[in-house]
Amino acid sequence: MKEIRLHGIGGMGTVKAGEMLVHAAVAAGKFGNSMPFFGFERQGAPVASYVRLGDQKIRAKNQVYHPDCVIIQDPSLLISTPVFEGLKEHSYVILNTKAQNPKELVRDPNVACLACLDATSIALELLGRPIPNTIILGAFVRATGWVDKEGLETVIGRTFGEKNVEAFRRGYEEAKLYHFDQGGIS
User: Fold this and answer.
1) CA distance to 21, 92, 180, per residue, from 60 (Å)
2) Element (H, E) at 94
3) pLDDT tens column, 56-101
4) CA-based R_g, the chain, Å
5) C-alpha atoms less than 13 angstroms from C-alpha of 4 in its C-beta half-sphere
6) What pLDDT, on the 0 to 100 scale, is given for residue 36?
7) What's the number of CA atoms in the CB half-sphere (13 Å) around residue 155?
8) Which of 39, 38, 30, 21 is nearest to 1 (CA)?
């Protein structure tokens, strides 16, 4: 079973992103569940969503405390929220950032792969709104391969339409991957 914790700001589609991952996994014959967590339920506040994906039934319905992957939809959360807390060894981090050197932002020794891109700029260009969720999902699929790309495109198209499928594809294509090993970054 793979556990994923998504961090975002209310209004960025964090919860919906988690739900779409589960729908794509289930459509492919796998199992999954998602559970949102809202602090104060308002736009602009930190939001988390917890996702589990696996080949067998998943009974756990609680928060993800030790994720295999963390998705960070807003770089301000690197400072304001403990996004790396509990990361398992050899984890993935998917980060929305326009930083010139994003690997300097991720210093957790458990990170094996960092996928990053400026998803907000792509969202503004393609969708006219700063909602990066489908773009970030493209980067997630490229980095992990845990969900079928075409299956997730279908779910995104059904949920949000063709422009968001294009946004997802841009996220997949434009994500930069950095691999960390004992010798440093490659």
Assistant:
1) 17, 21, 30
2) strand 91-96
3) 999 988 899 999 999 999 999 999 899 999 999 999 999 999 998 8
4) 15
5) 29
6) 85
7) 22
8) 30
- Tokens in use for 30? 């796998």
Report the pLDDT value the prediction gives residue 169, as an integer from 0 to 100. 98
pLDDT confidence of 183, banded at 50, 70, 90? very low
pLDDT in tens, 12-66: 899 999 999 999 999 999 999 999 886 555 667 889 999 999 999 999 888 999 9
Among residues 19, 140, 13, 10, the alpha carbon closest in space to that of 71 is found at 140
Expressed in angstroms, the distance from the first to the final Cα of the chain is: 27
Cβ(185)–Cβ(123) below 8 Å: no
Q: At what angle are helices 149-160 and 14-27 packed, to 10 degrees?
A: 130
In this structure, what token pair is assigned to residue 97? 């950032």
pTM for this prediction:
0.93
Sheet containing 31-38, strands listed edge to edge, beginning at the edge strand earlier in sequence: 31-38, 46-54, 2-9, 69-72, 91-96, 111-117, 176-181, 184-185
Q: Structure tokens of 72?
A: 């960070």
> Which residues does residue 72 pair with via DSSP β-bridges, in sequence order?
7, 95
- How far, in Å, CA of 45 to CA of 40, rounded? 7
Rounded Cα distance between 186 and 175, Å, is: 15
Token pair for 146: 């845990």
